[in-house]
Specification:
With 393 residues, this protein is of the alpha+beta class. Helices cover 26% and strands 24% of the residues. The chain has 11 helices and 15 strands. The longest helix is centred in the first third of the chain and has 17 residues, at 46-62. Bound molecules: zinc ion (ZN) (2 copies). One zinc ion binds at residues 193, 195-196, 200, 215, 217-218, 222.
Length: 393
């Protein structure tokens, strides 16, 4: 492929994405097309095969941020006529193959007659544009770290407070189990592309120009798989449903995110996996509420219990606790039980806050009514006036 072809090709169109598509959009578009057009899925269909090649080539460039930048810049340069006096005007002949200047270097001064590369500054410009053009010494295409994965889980209030082990079912691209992510059939392994020495880039000298472009032999990946793994079609990645167990720490609150390092998407070609982020939702509890690390609970009591005092049996996260209500406790008072709240990350736990709330009987039998009436008389006689000192009296 000549440079002109490279520039005239519309890799974005090949992948069906816009020229400002995100890396993720490109990855998704490529995965889908590669699956649909794969020769294994379309035996004997030469049109599909051509498309498959075009899509692979487009992805090799667009999935690599450096190559994509180079491609974008070069295209922009050409469309804006930045090369000046028709250096690459239609009709110019740039044949592929060796020739020109042997050493992989070119001197722009020769082209413009006199002057030096330093004078024009164009040497730097071309060097930057075409990836160095100095004989394919680029570092090999780096394995790509897997993406982070987001998941959600819902926990009952008490499990969130005490900590829980939650099974999660995740469907995401993961390292192929058959080939362990190499993309090569078990027993074989990918070999370094001989043409580009594993760099994924080939440099050519054509006429006065030297430049780099993605290697055709390996589609810019730097390695060649002679015998692709049939389970992942040589990609090294499979859509897999994973069942994993997530340890949710005690005291997690609604909406909190937990990070599990290395549990995200598998990296390509054995690269590091991404992380898994689990957002925890907490369902409310019938008994408990939360105020930070403090656990709150409302306990119904009778008027008499508040007047005379009592000991209440109050539920906690682990069991129950006896809470002493002193005689003469007013309605709505909050009693604090230290250390019986929600476990803290730093160790220890918050408090249990017990609110007493008077329950008023809506129906009393004759005996209780009589006793209460007698009580009110006695109360009055003892000098108690509920509205004494009340501003509204
Ligand atoms: Zn595989
Ligand atoms: Zn190659």
């Amino acid at each position: 492929m000549s440079q002109r072809e490279w520039i005239e090709k519309d890799f974005y169109k090949d992948l069906g994405v816009s020229s400002d598509a995100s890396a993720d959009e490109i990855k998704k578009a490529y995965r889908k097309l590669a699956r649909d057009l794969h020769p294994d899925a379309n035996p004997g269909d030469t049109a599909a095969e051509e498309r498959f090649k075009a899509v692979s080539e487009a992805n090799a460039v667009l999935s690599d941020p450096a190559k994509r930048k180079e491609y974008d810049e070069t295209r922009r340069m050409f469309s804006s006529g930045g090369f000046g006096h028709g250096g690459f005007a239609p009709g110019s002949q740039y044949t592929t193959g060796g020739g020109g200047f042997g050493g992989g270097e070119f001197n722009i001064g020769d082209l413009f007659g006199g002057g030096t590369a330093g004078d024009s500054g164009l040497g730097d410009l071309f060097g930057g544009l075409f990836g160095g053009g100095r004989g394919g010494t680029r570092t090999p295409t780096r394995p790509q770290r897997g993406s982070d994965v987001e998941a959600e889980t819902t926990l009952p209030f008490r499990e969130a407070a005490t900590g829980a082990t939650v099974p999660l079912r995740l469907t995401s691209p993961a390292s192929c189990t058959t080939c362990h992510g190499s993309g090569a059939k078990p027993g074989t392994s990918p070999r370094v592309c001989a043409r580009c020495n594993g760099s994924g880039i080939v440099s050519r000298n054509q006429g006065a120009f030297g430049f780099s472009e993605p290697c055709d032999d390996c589609r810019g990946t730097g390695s060649i798989i002679d015998d692709p793994c049939t389970d992942c079609r040589g990609t090294g990645v499979q859509n897999r449903t994973r069942n994993i167990t997530v340890r949710v720490p005690a005291g997690v609150s609604d909406g909190q995110k937990i990070r599990l390092a290395g549990q995200g998407e598998a990296g390509l070609r054995g690269a590091q996996s991404g992380d898994l982020y689990v957002t925890v939702h907490v369902t409310p509890d019938k008994v408990f509420g939360r105020n930070g690390d403090d656990l709150t609970v409302i306990v119904p009591v009778s008027y008499g219990e508040l007047v005379l005092g009592t000991t209440l049996s109050v539920p906690t996260l682990e069991g129950r606790v006896g809470v002493k209500v002193p005689a003469g406790t007013i309605d709505g008072r909050i009693l604090r039980v230290r250390g019986r709240g929600v476990p803290k990350r730093s160790g220890g736990a918050g408090d249990l806050l017990v609110t007493v709330k008077v329950a008023v009987p809506t129906h009393l039998d004759e005996k209780a009514t009589e006793a209460l009436t007698a009580y009110l008389e006695a109360e009055k006689a003892s000098g108690f006036d509920p509205r004494a000192g009340w501003a509204g009296a």
